[in-house]
Automatic annotation (TrEMBL):
The name this protein goes by in its record: Glycerol-3-phosphate dehydrogenase [NAD(P)+]
Keywords annotated in UniProt: Cytoplasm, Lipid biosynthesis, Lipid metabolism, NAD, NADP, Nucleotide-binding, Oxidoreductase, Phospholipid biosynthesis, Phospholipid metabolism
Pfam families reported for this sequence: NAD_Gly3P_dh_C, NAD_Gly3P_dh_N
Glycerol-3-phosphate dehydrogenase NAD-dependent N-terminal domain span: 18-173
Binding-site residues for sn-glycerol 3-phosphate, renumbered to this chain: K119, G149, K204, D257, S267, R268, N269
PANTHER family in the record: GLYCEROL-3-PHOSPHATE DEHYDROGENASE, GLYCEROL-3-PHOSPHATE DEHYDROGENASE [NAD(+)] 2, CHLOROPLASTIC
Gene field: gpsA
Keyword RNA-binding recorded: no
Length: 346
């Protein structure tokens, strides 16, 4: 039995955390950890963003209208942020993780834990983010945790209640990270199934693109429910082929995050899909959406991974064809529905 496990609410801890990424999730998760009692330093690339986080306790560019906990500081010096940190939390776009982390390999503390908040699969290698973290920082899986769940940054920045999953092959590491982010509005559950939790986070973005495209095209709730439900089936199929635990998929990181991302107009993946459905080109849709819509690039790496394992992922395939191979949006539904008859199930 390895489904999401309940974690008691933590007492404040004085753990030191470095958060890499001053974007919407990095800044919000920094606030979550500060509220849980951690000492938090954010690394960001933009001098002005870092200065306003430290001096004005605001990040108007990424989390507008939110007062951040006063103790959070930010720096453009990633090495200084990581030095001495108990937790190194990574919240940058998946495709830039390897290059960024390789420069920090020699400064991460020998017993520090790396925490991936990223929801993507690396292009070119088809690696999950915990694998990229292990390779680029040179640390073992027992020092790595993944946080994933129905976690739209905008809602959490306003301290709206939600739950999440902290996955690690080490229960001790999972508990440490869970305690470092547990608060009255943020409820972590632990799960040893790193593969399943990571895949859910990455592939739900692709499914949200498909839902957005359908909605942008004017299709209704039956279509949405079909794409979400069959999307979960294809996420599960890929996960099982990679050795994930079947119980992860109906949990918070699976169905929970799929629902949040496919339903919310605040989701970048959903929004970008919607723009495509309304007729924008990919370049126009990326510009109009802003922020990191991981599914655009990860759709290709996920499909490659699936193909290498002989796993069928028709929705992911359709998204790749529309975004990257010029398939007209109007042909998407036909591509999905005109497939040969099969029985329902994984
Ligand atoms: N925003 C959310 O609601 C949310 C929730 C859960 C998980 N995530 C995941 O967190 C990760 C980060 O997303 P986000 O929402 O914070 O993105 P964002 O676009 O809001 O911010 C991205 C941050 O990364 C930095 N960055 C961009 N390119 C970079 C590069 N080449 N090298 C180093 N840094 C770079 C940017 O300057 C910015 O600080 C993604 O994998 C996303 O899927 C986001
Ligand atoms: O805005 P999105 O589409 O990247 O989704 C954000 C989170 O992953 C939702 O859990």
């Amino acid at each position: 039995m390895t489904a999401d496990r309940d974690v008691p609410l933590a007492q404040p801890h004085a753990l030191r955390a470095a958060v890499l990424g001053a974007g919407s999730w990095g800044t919000t998760f920094a606030a979550v950890m500060a509220d849980a009692g951690c000492e938090v330093t954010i690394w960001g690339r933009d001098e002005k963003v870092c200065r306003t986080i430290t001096e004005e306790h605001r990040n108007e560019r990424y989390v507008p209208g939110v007062d951040l906990p006063a103790g959070i500081t930010a720096t453009t010096d990633a090495r200084a942020a990581v030095r001495g940190a108990d937790l190194v939390v990574i919240a940058i776009p998946s495709q830039s993780a390897r290059a960024t982390l390789e420069t920090l390999r020699d400064v991460i503390e020998p017993d520090a834990v790396a925490v991936s908040l990223m929801k993507g699969v690396e292009l070119g290698t088809d690696r999950r983010m915990s694998q990229v973290v292990a390779e680029s920082l040179g640390i073992g899986p027992e020092r790595i945790a993944v946080v994933s769940g129905p976690n739209l940054a905008k809602e959490i920045a306003h301290r709206q209640p939600t739950a999440t999953v902290v996955a690690s092959t080490s229960e001790e590491t999972a508990q440490l990270v869970a305690k470092a982010c547990a608060s009255s509005y943020f409820r972590p559950y632990t799960n040893p199934d790193v593969v399943g939790v990571e895949l859910c986070g990455a592939v739900k973005n692709v499914i949200a693109l498909a839902v957005g495209i359908s909605q942008g095209r004017g299709l209704g709730y039956n279509t949405m429910a079909t794409v979400i439900t069959r999307g979960l089936v294809e996420i599960t199929r890929l996960g099982l082929a990679l050795g994930a635990d079947a119980e992860t998929f109906p949990g918070l990181a699976g169905m929970g995050d799929l629902m949040a991302t496919c339903a919310s107009p605040d989701s970048r993946n959903h929004t970008l899909g919607n723009h495509i459905g309304r007729g924008m080109t990919l370049e126009e849709a990326i510009a109009a959406t802003g922020g990191t819509a991981e599914g655009v690039k990860s759709s290709r790496s996920v499909l490659e991974l699936a193909d290498s394992l002989g796993v069928e992922m028709p929705i992911t395939h359709a998204v790749v064809r529309v975004l990257h191979e010029g398939l007209p949006v109007d042909d998407l539904a036909a591509l999905l529905l005109a497939r040969p008859h099969k029985a329902e199930g994984v």
